[in-house]
Specification:
4 helices, 8-stranded mixed beta sheet, 15 strands
C-alpha cells in the first residue's frame, strides 16, 4: 500500500492505493472499501480481468504461493503467453502473465523477492456492450494498434513498456452491475498537464462527452465513457505519491487534501482502522 487517503467525493470512505515501492505510474490499483456494500456483477460495460506482469520464470513461484494460501487458480495460454488466473476474496478477476517489460520491483515484502515480484500492470480484458465500437475507440481515439485475434479476443497494444496490452472480448455478455468485486474504471496515462489538456481536446473532438479536469492531489484526472459503456480515465503522471510524504513513510499516515484537513479528527474517528501485515 503506497497511499492511504480518502475518496474526495465521499470523504467518509478510504481511497487506498497499491503499487510498487515507489508508486510508479503503471503499477497503481486503487480500492474504495465500502463496508457492507452489495455484491456487483461482472459483465458488459466493465473491465473484466486485470492483468499483472511478473518476470519470466516467476509463475511457478506464484502457483506454489497460491497453494500455500489456499487460493484457487487456473492456467491458460493466450497469444503465446502463459497466464495464471485467480480471483480476490470479493470476486475481482485477476491474472498474472510472464512478460518482459518494466523495471524489476526492488521492494521485498512477505517472502516476495525482486526476481518474482509483480513489475506492474500487464493490461486488461475489456467486456463491452459494443465490442466493435470499443475496438474502434482503442484504435482511432486512444491510438493503440490491433496486433492479433485469438478465440473470442481481439488484442491491442500501445507503445508503453507496461500496462500496454488490452484484450477486447467479442462474445456478447449480460450487462455488468457495479458493486463489490467489480472494476469502476480503467486509467490511461498522460505525460503532464499540457498533454492532459491535449487529450481532453482530442477526446472531445472525437465526439465523446469528457469531464473537466479534476484535481486528485496525486494526479489530475478526466473521464469519459466510450461507446461500449466502459468508463475511461486519463490521469497525469505528476505530481505523484511522494509529494506530501517521503517514499519511506508512504501509506503509514492518513493523508488528506487541504480542503479536508480541518476535518481530520472527525474523519479519523469515523474511518475503520486498517493495518498492512506480512503474510507467513
Amino acid at each position: 500500500m503506497v497511499k492511504k487517503t480518502i475518496n474526495f467525493d465521499d470523504p467518509g470512505t478510504y481511497h487506498l492505493y497499491f503499487g510498487d515501492g515507489g508508486g510508479k505510474p503503471g503499477t497503481i490499483i486503487t480500492f474504495f472499501p465500502w463496508a457492507n456494500a452489495y455484491q456487483g456483477k461482472i459483465g458488459a460495460g466493465q473491465v473484466g480481468v486485470t492483468s499483472y506482469i511478473v518476470p519470466s520464470g516467476a509463475l511457478s513461484f506464484w502457483e506454489e504461493r497460491f497453494v500455500k494460501f489456499n487460493i484457487n487458480f487456473t492456467k491458460e495460454e493466450r497469444f503465446g503467453e502463459s497466464y495464471v488466473l485467480f480471483e480476490d476474496p470479493h470476486g475481482l478477476q485477476l491474472e498474472l502473465v510472464e512478460r518482459e517489460g518494466g523495471e524489476l520491483n526492488t521492494w521485498e515484502f512477505g517472502g516476495i523477492t525482486p526476481a518474482v515480484a509483480i513489475t506492474g500492470f500487464g493490461g486488461a480484458t475489456l467486456l463491452s456492450t459494443s465490442p466493435e465500437q470499443t475496438a474502434k475507440t482503442l484504435e482511432e481515439v486512444m491510438g493503440l494498434e490491433k496486433v492479433g485475434e485469438e478465440g473470442d479476443l481481439i488484442r491491442f497494444r500501445s507503445y508503453g513498456d507496461i500496462g500496454n496490452v488490452i484484450d477486447v472480448k467479442v462474445t456478447p455478455l449480460g450487462r455488468g452491475q457495479m458493486g463489490v468485486g467489480t472494476v469502476h474504471h480503467i486509467a490511461w496515462r498522460a505525460e503532464d498537464d499540457q498533454d492532459h489538456l491535449d487529450w481532453q481536446e482530442h477526446v472531445r473532438n472525437q465526439g465523446y462527452g469528457v469531464t473537466e479536469v479534476k484535481d486528485r492531489n496525486y494526479f489530475n484526472a478526466l473521464y469519459f465513457k466510450e461507446h461500449g459503456e466502459i468508463l475511461f480515465e486519463i490521469a497525469t503522471d505528476p505530481p505523484g505519491f511522494a509529494h506530501d510524504e517521503t517514499p519511506e513513510t508512504m501509506s503509514q499516515n492518513l493523508m488528506l487534501p487541504e480542503q479536508y484537513e480541518s476535518h481530520r479528527e472527525q474523519l479519523t474517528e469515523s474511518l475503520i482502522p486498517i493495518e498492512v501485515r506480512p503474510l507467513d
